[in-house]
């Protein structure tokens, strides 16, 4: 386990160690903080070598305070003990700065991809893709048989099976693939350290056919929030997903499948069920498809349109400079998330069309494609600054956009009369329709 100062800093800031008083940064908090570091050309590792308060003198955030950051960085002793234990168990760590971090997660989740993955086994599998197979812990024999058959079929076609590692459908699918000389990835919500040494997985880990990973502390116990949060990683590591069984509006399987359909990460297929009231039938009504009666050539499962709300794989926001990404690709991708939102639903993905503020402004923005991103930006700034002006850094952080792009649009908005610039300190606030009309009449008087 090669742990450099960058990895140490990320671990200290984002991973809990026992029952310490300081709460680690969430994925979204880390995203905000990491973006600020990038904008100020600071590597996380510098926080371990210099004075954090001096280095972060310009940092301001309601929840990620300097005191909290200092408290997290002051856990070196706990980190050292944990690393020693994890290394003895054969675990490895991969952060977003490393080339073998799952590329699919970067593309689909962008700054919502976890800052760190713990794992054991063959880490190369993380970038192989495959078929996600998910379902209930308390599955029927028929459902377990279906999941095993599906996994064996995928393995015979050279595809990895990705699941959650829990008992029931998850474990049945993973073991089915492994026993057919295939490969599998288990995205664990808890107890990775224990799973890494369990007899049922050990031989497959040693043979390189299995990878067990978790974005959570390897020693963490079961937590409903973690179980729900990891669902997105199962889907985003795959090329297509199959739901074996689900209950409407209940449980992790339903929540994960619904989240995937909403975000359009991968095509979703469900096992045919005779019960029209089943969760599977409800998922089909939401955009999933019935799994073919005969096991198909699996590559056909992700051909064509992945779903009504799907965005192109390249859609998203650029990662941070210290979180490796092709520079040319970053430039092309900067507005991918906004592009997808506008192309599919107007402003629906970023601002509800029923929002009175959006309706109030709608007729005042041009609708040509060249202006769509700019118009969407103006709507978001209108919502963000309705009560008080904001600094450019805060606007960029809230919208998850590059500061240089936000600056360009703010200048344009100021010139167009949609935004007013305040000084001491420099802040920006949207100008309402009424204010613009008043200004117009005053100019004519």
Automatic annotation (TrEMBL):
Gene3D superfamilies: 3.40.50.450. Residues 93-291 form the Smf/DprA SLOG domain. It comes from the Bacteria. It holds the Pfam family DNA_processg_A. InterPro entries: DprA (IPR003488), DrpA_SLOG (IPR057666). One of its GO terms (biological process) is DNA-mediated transformation. Belongs to the DprA/Smf family. This is DNA-processing protein DprA. It comes from Pseudooceanicola albus. The lineage of its organism: Bacteria, Pseudomonadati, Pseudomonadota, Alphaproteobacteria, Rhodobacterales.
């Amino acid at each position: 386990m090669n742990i450099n100062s960058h990895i140490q800093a990320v671990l200290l800031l984002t991973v809990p160690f026992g029952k310490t008083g300081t709460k680690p940064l969430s994925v979204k908090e880390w995203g905000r903080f990491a973006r600020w570091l990038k904008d100020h050309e600071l590597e996380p590792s510098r926080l371990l070598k210099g004075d954090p308060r001096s280095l972060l003198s310009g940092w301001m955030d309601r929840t990620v305070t300097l005191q909290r950051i200092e408290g997290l960085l002051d856990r070196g002793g706990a980190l050292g003990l944990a690393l020693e234990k994890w290394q003895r168990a054969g675990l490895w760590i991969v952060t977003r700065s490393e080339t073998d971090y799952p590329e699919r997660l970067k593309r689909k989740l962008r700054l919502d991809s976890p800052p760190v993955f713990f794992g054991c086994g063959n880490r190369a599998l993380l970038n192989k893709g495959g078929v996600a197979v998910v379902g209930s812990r308390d599955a029927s024999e028929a459902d377990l048989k279906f999941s095993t058959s599906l996994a064996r079929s995928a393995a015979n076609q050279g595809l990895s099976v990705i699941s959650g590692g829990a008992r029931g459908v998850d474990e049945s699918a993973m073991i089915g693939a492994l026993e057919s000389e295939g490969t599998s990835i288990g995205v664990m919500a808890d107890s990775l350290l224990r799973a890494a040494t369990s007899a049922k997985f050990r031989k497959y880990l040693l043979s390189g056919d299995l990878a067990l990973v978790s974005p959570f502390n390897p020693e963490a116990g079961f937590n409903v929030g973690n179980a729900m949060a990891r669902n997105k990683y199962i889907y985003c590591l795959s090329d297509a997903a199959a739901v074996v069984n689900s209950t409407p509006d209940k449980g992790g399987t339903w929540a994960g499948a619904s989240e995937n359909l909403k975000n359009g990460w991968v095509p979703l297929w469900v096992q045919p069920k005779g019960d029209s009231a089943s969760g599977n039938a409800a998922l089909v009504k939401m955009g999933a498809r019935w799994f073919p009666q005969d096991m198909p050539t699996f590559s056909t499962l992700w051909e064509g349109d992945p779903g009504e709300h799907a965005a192109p794989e390249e859609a998203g926001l650029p990662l941070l400079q210290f979180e490796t990404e092709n520079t040319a690709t970053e430039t092309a991708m900067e507005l991918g998330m906004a592009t997808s939102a506008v192309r599919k639903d107007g402003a629906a993905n970023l601002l509800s069309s029923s929002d009175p503020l959006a309706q109030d402004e709608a007729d005042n923005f041009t609708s040509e494609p060249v202006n769509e991103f700019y118009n969407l930006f103006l709507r978001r700034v209108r919502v963000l600054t309705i009560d008080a002006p904001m600094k450019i850094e805060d606007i960029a952080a809230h919208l998850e956009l590059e500061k240089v792009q936000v600056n360009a649009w703010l200048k344009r908005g100021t010139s167009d009369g949609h935004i007013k610039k305040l000084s001491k300190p420099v802040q920006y606030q949207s100008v309402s329709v009424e204010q613009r009309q008043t200004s117009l009449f005053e100019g004519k008087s």
